[in-house]
């Protein structure tokens, strides 16, 4: 699992695409409120990306039908936007955006809370973001990836009775949508990838609000992944560059 070391030119291109992906989420934030449907969110984001001379990477990727993923409540990831899916007070929503700008990929996602959410939902969203940031802060050259991510995230979220999804992971990104290495959010109990300057990867923990990390893919659409016990699930994502001295979060606007 040899991660790609990006060149300075590639890194500059990836930075610009990541910046656009983050700006896309900034743009859509005022629209995320009770009453809007997720297909409208998809359309607004699609047009925004095109206006900025880029393309949405998810559209038609392995048959995925939309430009973004909208994962609501107990949907872990890969939720498909729909005009029938109307946001209501109490919902939590992940919007996952990946842009292709001048051939380079930028990948990021955020959680949104709609109206008055339960304390349980609010804490899950906040703690998942904190878990992501705790892991990112550990990333640095000559450290093992699992020591920085899985070993950090899993013990933290287990304290609250949560679980890290095991059947999905983060990944290298930049030249392609998905590259090596795989980034796991639980302790895989082994030394994996030794981090080197020039690596670019996503840190995107998927955290279920129950001890069960079990998930299932919707047999009807082949994409939507939900918790099997119906528990809420949250995810945050940044694309991160390993630098000579540490790391840089690229998906910041």
TrEMBL record:
Gene3D superfamilies: Creatinase/methionine aminopeptidase superfamily. Residues 12-244 form the Peptidase M24 domain. The keyword Cell division does not apply. GO terms for biological process: proteolysis. SUPFAM superfamilies: Creatinase/aminopeptidase. A divalent metal cation 2 binds at residues 107, 171, 204, 237. One of its GO terms (molecular function) is initiator methionyl aminopeptidase activity. Its EC number is 3.4.11.18. Keywords: Aminopeptidase, Hydrolase, Metal-binding, Protease. Its cofactor is Co(2+); Zn(2+); Mn(2+); Fe(2+). A divalent metal cation 1 binds at residues 96, 107, 237. Substrate binds at residues 78, 178. Binds 2 divalent metal cations per subunit. Has a high-affinity and a low affinity metal-binding site. The true nature of the physiological cofactor is under debate. The enzyme is active with cobalt, zinc, manganese or divalent iron ions. Most likely, methionine aminopeptidases function as mononuclear Fe(2+)-metalloproteases under physiological conditions, and the catalytically relevant metal-binding site has been assigned to the histidine-containing high-affinity site. It is an enzyme of class 3 (hydrolase). It catalyses: Release of N-terminal amino acids, preferentially methionine, from peptides and arylamides. Monomer. Removes the N-terminal methionine from nascent proteins. The N-terminal methionine is often cleaved when the second residue in the primary sequence is small and uncharged (Met-Ala-, Cys, Gly, Pro, Ser, Thr, or Val). Requires deformylation of the N(alpha)-formylated initiator methionine before it can be hydrolyzed. Belongs to the peptidase M24A family. Methionine aminopeptidase type 1 subfamily. This is Methionine aminopeptidase.
């Amino acid at each position: 699992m040899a991660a790609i070391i990006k060149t300075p030119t590639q890194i500059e291109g990836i930075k610009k695409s990541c910046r656009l992906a983050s700006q896309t989420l900034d743009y859509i934030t005022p629209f995320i409120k009770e009453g809007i449907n997720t297909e409208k969110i998809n359309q607004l984001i699609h047009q925004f990306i095109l206006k900025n001379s880029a393309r949405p990477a998810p559209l038609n990727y392995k048959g995925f039908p939309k430009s973004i993923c909208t994962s609501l409540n107990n949907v872990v990831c890969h939720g498909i936007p729909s005009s029938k899916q109307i946001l209501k007070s109490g919902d939590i929503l992940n919007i996952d955006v990946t842009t292709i700008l001048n051939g380079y990929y930028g990948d990021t996602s955020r959680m949104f809370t709609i109206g008055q959410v339960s304390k349980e939902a609010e804490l899950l969203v906040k703690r998942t973001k904190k878990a992501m940031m705790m892991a990112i802060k550990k990333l640095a050259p000559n450290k093992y990836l699992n020591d920085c991510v899985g070993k950090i995230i899993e013990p933290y979220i287990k304290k609250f009775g949560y679980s890290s999804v095991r059947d999905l992971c983060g990944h290298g990104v930049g030249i392609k949508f998905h590259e090596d290495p795989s980034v796991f959010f639980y302790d895989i109990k082994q030394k994996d990838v030794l981090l080197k300057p020039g690596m670019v990867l996503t840190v995107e923990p998927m955290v279920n609000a129950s001890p069960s990390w079990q998930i299932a893919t919707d047999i009807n659409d082949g994409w939507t992944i939900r918790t099997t016990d119906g528990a809420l699930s949250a995810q945050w994502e940044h694309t991160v560059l390993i630098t000579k001295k540490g790391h840089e979060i690229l998906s910041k606007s």
